[in-house]
What we know:
The protein is α/β, with parallel strands linked by helices. It is built from eleven helices and 20 strands. The longest helix is centred in the middle third of the chain and has 23 residues, at 260-282. It is globular, with a radius of gyration of 22 Å.
Amino acid sequence: MRYFVSYAWPRWLSVGVASLLLAGLGLAARPAPPRLARPNIILINMDDMGYGDTEPYGMTGVPTPNFNRLAREGTRFTHFNAGQPVCTASRAALLTGCYPNRVGMEGVLLPWDTRALNPQEATLAAQLRRAGYHTAMLGKWHLGNRAPYLPIHYGFDSFYGLPWSNDIWPIDRDGFSRVTDPKDMRSRFPVLTLLEGDTPVDTIRNLNDQATLTTRYTERAVRYIRAHRAGQPFFLYLAHAMPHVPLAASARFKGKSPLGTFGDVLMELDWSLGEILNALDASKLAGNTLLVVTSDNGPWLTYGDHAGSSGGLREGKQVSFEGGVRVPCLIRWPGHAAAGGISSELLTNMDLLPTLLAAAGAPLPERKIDGVSFLPYLEGKTARGPREVFYYYYDGNALQAVRYQRWKLVLPHLGGTYAQTPPGRGGTPGQKPTVSVPQALYDLAHDPAEAYDVQTLYPDVVRQLQHLAEQARADLGDDLTHQSGAGRRPPATY
Length: 494
């Protein structure tokens, strides 16, 4: 088993000297692999899967043999961040390579919102299609509520899935009865509709229908892979509905896990991954397919036993501490990404767009993006990842924290917390009170749980990160300091 490990030598150290050091440590850089035909690309994006929800990231109690296989055959990233700790924003980051607030897609869309991803923004799918790829999407979109703001208008040749999250429906927590209280926002939600392209083809009426989603998407993914076993390279984006609440597993997995419904759902998602791996093997496509599995944000901890695990990181979804933003990421690309590799380099889902485009030989978007390609790092040609800085925006356009290398400066703000009240149970959420979050400095190398404020010990680091915060505010704005930002671009409105 080979690992590639990040070593913090100075930037001025020459590549030649670095290679000699690696060789002396028995970690000589892998020889450049022969470049095959452009790889097929499969990107699987889980919904609300926490950092600790699979065995490669520490899950106990739920077997995940296919995630384990992917970790053995690919590289596991341990400091991989979503663009924001909530679904719409994170998906905008993934598909545009931009901070969500740069493209006007911060937060989360509800059915009555008249905001959508601007069609002038180049998506990963659109750039790959320009380069000759066939492109398909399955699952949750959540970047626009109606045509022409649905996937087939953003570079996807086909789409089958939901326009938004599977909990945006008028059904109560029991999964069957309709919400009738007009004071409850859910009573205003429309029927949850499955779309084929722009056309409604089915409705998700109750929890039994929810239980079919993972299998529906998986079967379609397998058929797509088999149909493209030769010829034109393809890009398949599979955005699963689960393990976002309301949770439901099909009959073959229901009641199979000691962790209850959540465990059943994880087992089915693991099965889904296995079906895709098997389809690649059977179609003889595995050797030239770049497969990425990640999540849109951390676990929605208010749901307790219906939520996942942040793996010991602080807080979860909708919070800018690490448990909300740091997510699992596994990449398999035989002959390119190290088998059994582990990387602790700081990377983000914004970085996938330029990395995958580089792997495909596709052009970058003409507009400015925030992602950086880590293809040379993925292939072992460099020992360091390209990213040193990440900005934690949430709650509108509020800059809540800044990271530089291993240091994270949390800026004063109001934020939710899961730590002060008991979580919910059985699909009913608990409370998430709002608290005043003070400024603090955390050393994530020694304190991944963000428990020990060390700002008085490292005032020079605080000043450096405050300077980075000012740069972010000038470019992307900041609601907390009432700055608009010169580099923001508007969303589409209708």
